[in-house]
Amino acid sequence: MSSIAQPTPAPFTGDDYATRMARVTHDAVGAGLDGVLVTPGPDLVWLTGYRPTAITERLTVLVLRPARQPTLVVPMLERPDAEAASGTAAVSFVDWADGTDPYLVAGSRLDPAGRYGISDSTWAMHLLGLQRQLPLSSYVSLTNGMPMLRAVKDARELARLAAAGAAADAVYEQIVQSPFAGRRELDVAAELAELLRRYGHEQVDFTVVGSGPNGADPHHEAGDRTIENGDTVVLDFGGLMFGYGSDTSRTISVGEPPPLVREVHSIVRQAQQAAVEAVRPGIACQQIDRVARSVISDAGYGQQFVHRTGHGIGVTTHEPPYIVEGEEQVLVPGMCFSIEPGIYLPGRFGIRIEDIVTVTDTGCRRLNNTGRDLRAVG
Ligand code: ZN
Ligand code: ZN
Ligand code: ZN
Questions:
Q1: Is 150 within a domain?
Q2: Which of 56, 294, 312, 346 is the most buried (most CB within 10 A)?
Q3: pLDDT single digits (tens) 364-374
Q4: Same domain assignment for residues 160 and 135
Q5: Number of domains forming the structure of the chain
Q6: Which of 189, 206, 199, 197 is nearest to 167 (CA)?
Q7: Does residue 2 register a pLDDT over 50?
Q8: In the chain, pLDDT over 70 holds for what percent of residues?
Q9: How far apart are CA 116 and CA 35, in angstroms?
């Protein structure tokens, strides 16, 4: 089997990370905040390249304040790893030892009555610890309290997302060459994971294989069920490549599809196409969801489209912005998200078609480009 040798992109430099930290600090001031607090998770990875091996109860927090050097408060034993991360050259370090109070250490770097943006994935115990230390301080969500940190991707991030999408596409083209009938879902899922790695992913996040009635459960991953001739199979897989995500779905038919499967697939395909065509700068996220939903509702399946239309993707496979009713965030060139409408008929089958798109100046570009026909496999 040929493997796709995708050139490894040049790593982000200390300057790149410093620029991100400066931009976020600037945005925080613009939003009326005194700074930003970021604990381990995707925001910290994006800002510093630092990904602790385990996220623990010990407080680690990046403190960004205007006109101050970024400061990373870390447990003493984690300091060497944090210092070695690719984006922490411009960061000053403050460590704390077990047996001392980390909130006292972090709190002394903050304005006692300050208002801070804090990352969504911060453990409650850490936020409560800071509030106990600084009773007059206040906190807002980084996602809602200021412009989204990571939603708009730059050219180098887009190149990574495109590479991850192309690799996922190659996996799909490969998996449909193998027979499905007679194999268990788990075996197909294992092959998907192996192919994702072979085509360059360093991390596999999910490999959904929903055959027959299992496909009607959007949360089904893969199980013992043996795939039979006549089944419809939802495939939905992705992970990280060069630190950026892939996520694509196609639904296939084992043998010739029955008329109802053809009909439902065609509705989902039209909904997906209409939503993709609706993407352009200035449109609200919820509007994209409405476009997909109206196609499905008009066809009589509105109650069977049981999830939002999509989610953002970047250094994680699910992140803001969400393509969902109520999300008024306006699309901006460089945003990347999935468009993945589905119809689920309990006890029978499910259909989902998913591509990642990126917003351009005039519309959008798909990062997944495999055929969207209902493909019949062996
Ligand atoms: Zn997916
Ligand atoms: Zn998705
Ligand atoms: Zn999902």
A1: no
A2: 312
A3: 999 999 999 99
A4: no
A5: 2
A6: 199
A7: no
A8: 99
A9: 5
